Amino acid sequence: xxxxxxxxxxxxxxxxxxxxxxxxxxxxxxxxxxxxxxxxxxxxxxxxxxxxxxxxxxxxxxxxxxxxxxxxxxxxxxxxxxxxxxxxxxxxxxxxxxxxxxxxxxxxxxxxxxxxxxxxxxx
Length: 123
Fold this sequence. Notes:
With 123 residues, this protein is of the alpha+beta class. It has one helix spanning 13-32, and strands at 36-45, 55-65, 69-79, 86-98. A four-stranded antiparallel beta sheet has the order 1-4-3-2, covered by helices on one side. It is elongated, with a radius of gyration of 16 Å. The termini are far apart. GO terms for molecular function: long-chain fatty acyl-CoA hydrolase activity. This is Cytosolic long-chain acyl-CoA thioester hydrolase family protein. One of its GO terms (cellular component) is cytosol.
């Protein structure tokens, strides 16, 4: 929306990061089978520009799992409003910690790795 842009019509990077965090959080919650919170966001780059009206898609992959954490790579791809051309507009890495009912970190369930793609090394 126009409120999410700079004076030149480009979408703010912070808005893109928020959308990527939502997508990555959805994957973290599904794989972790419960509540997951962002504890860090790193390695961000904004190689392209997104305009108001472009369609945004966010693609995420689990890079690594720890005892209580998931590291997820996210890419944001914009498709022009009235066409098919696409541009990678942002990429970055999020780390999530799984949270239990008591509000404390909890271990990833043993069967959680069954939800990960078979070609990933998530040891």
